[in-house]
């Protein structure tokens, strides 16, 4: 969940397909709740809830869950799919909930996409009761066997001028600066095998590659597609097309 109107529109458009495209969120949402180990009846605030990957796991643990997201489309789907949830549309940096009203705050793959993560973590701290905990997941950037694709994108679309992705050490530092104590983390891995080059093209296309290629001059777009399929066929022949997604799961507490 980000604070920009552009991002809200993006997630509105993805609401129906979000967990199909981002295949790892359901599994890692369960793992994040397992790490936090809430007790039945705990009051949980899930920030940037999306389609409910973390919120569902907290409900299954017997918690009373409030889910918030900045995307109205996500909120509508979330409320329709999970009527036992309390759903609110609001921004991570301006949570519309009272001080000290939750035992656990969760945020799955949220902090790294925020314009002001420090502000959001301060809000997480504010809404937690003394001794409450925060559990957040962070995408771990890996290239692995998709190095050929990263190089192809660099040559055709540029790159390398944006902000560097947040690291696990930086997130732990932000948690400490926000007043949380004893931050701890664990690694997580969620690979997915695709059945061939065409499936990789479709998966990436749904996330914006198709639009980016369509914006290229026609001859350039044709060369990109040819090089893409050549690279994907080699990858498929040399061990299969596997998306290697990694994350770190972070847990910290407010002073008791």
TrEMBL record:
One BP term from GO: methylation
Name one matching Pfam family.
Methyltransf_11
Q: Which domain of life is it from?
A: Bacteria
Picking any one GO molecular function of the record gives: S-adenosylmethionine-dependent methyltransferase activity
Q: Which residues form the Methyltransferase type domain?
A: 45-135
Q: Which UniProt keywords apply?
A: Methyltransferase, Transferase
The name under which this protein is listed is SAM-dependent methyltransferase
Q: What is the lineage of its organism?
A: Bacteria, Bacillati, Actinomycetota, Actinomycetes, Pseudonocardiales
